[in-house]
Write a sequence for this structure.
């Protein structure tokens, strides 16, 4: 029996479009005192959601991205995740980072219906990564901080050779790649995918 | 000595941004009777150039891409090569094709200073490919129509598993990937690359 058929959980590969994570303070500055995020779509990871609220991002070339989706719940830091194509269009020289590792990254201005909010840092290109429960990590023989390979089949077959592993008992097995990566391999719902060490 | 050091020619990997190839008739319709393309930048492949002239492409969602670069010289068919990110923004359901294989692909409207030109078909996402002289093909042990792998190193290490091989005595060794593929692997001038069977 192929290895993957014995896996404790099915492998989901999802494309993360550009989005932001905000602190409660940023949400209030942008949407008004007492404002909170309103879930409109629950995501695969526990308690994570796409919010009804979006912001406008102003980049260094004075170009903007409107309707940038906020993902909730609120976090303890503000972070914007862009694909490299977005970054180039906006004029950001954006580094590849793991989520939460934002020291020294570019800042930006956000605009909401209640006003502006300046981020001193936090604009990143998120490194492609896989969320795993400890059971999945045991099955694949990896630990948090390791790198794996994601093989994507189909007419634009592509292997992502540095898939960062994140392990947490709250996580469900899910790969996150960005829109550039998803479009490069032309990922469709029925495209074959395989995660290997 | 590593294999690549014995190669007859250095391996160049270049990113092709969206562009179009036009017939002389299309150039005249868009730029006026007797109009021809003006080279402003010679490309790596013999006699190929980026033209001074650009067109505006109107997609099915009535969205446009302005300043779409024309590559010369003129060809016997009209073809527009977009990355999937471009296609999605414009509203095209664009197939992955080899250059010149445009039967059944979407059409579009082009706009130039002298008027419109309607393409009945020809909008594609070009499959990633490698141009090779027969000497290169002999070295790598491949022939036209084969597929190879392109391994790209660096922080976003990625392997393109279906690199289409094109062989012609006029060709110089050069890989063409599109902007989605180039951005997915964060290709820089010093990023290590390797072509393997």
């Amino acid at each position: 029996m192929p290895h993957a058929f014995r896996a404790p959980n099915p492998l989901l590969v999802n494309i993360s479009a550009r989005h932001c994570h905000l602190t409660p303070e940023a949400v209030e500055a942008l949407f008004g005192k007492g404002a909170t995020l309103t879930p409109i779509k629950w995501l695969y990871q526990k308690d994570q959601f796409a919010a009804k609220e979006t912001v406008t991002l102003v980049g260094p070339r004075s170009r903007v991205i409107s309707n940038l989706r906020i993902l909730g719940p609120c976090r303890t830091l503000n972070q914007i995740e862009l694909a490299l194509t977005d970054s180039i269009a906006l004029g950001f020289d954006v580094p590849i980072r793991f989520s939460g590792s934002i020291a020294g990254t570019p800042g930006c201005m956000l605009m909401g219906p209640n006003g502006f909010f300046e981020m001193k840092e936090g604009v990143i290109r998120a490194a492609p990564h896989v969320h795993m429960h400890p059971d999945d990590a045991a099955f694949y023989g990896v630990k948090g901080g390791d790198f794996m390979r994601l093989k994507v089949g189909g007419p634009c077959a592509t292997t992502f050779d540095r898939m960062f592993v994140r392990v947490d008992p709250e996580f469900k097995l899910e790969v996150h790649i960005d829109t550039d990566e998803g479009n490069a391999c032309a990922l469709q719902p029925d495209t074959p995918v395989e995660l290997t060490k």
User: Anything to note?
Assistant: Residues 24-31 of chain B form the longest helix (8 residues). The mean pLDDT of chain B is 95. Chain B has two domains: 17-126, 128-196.
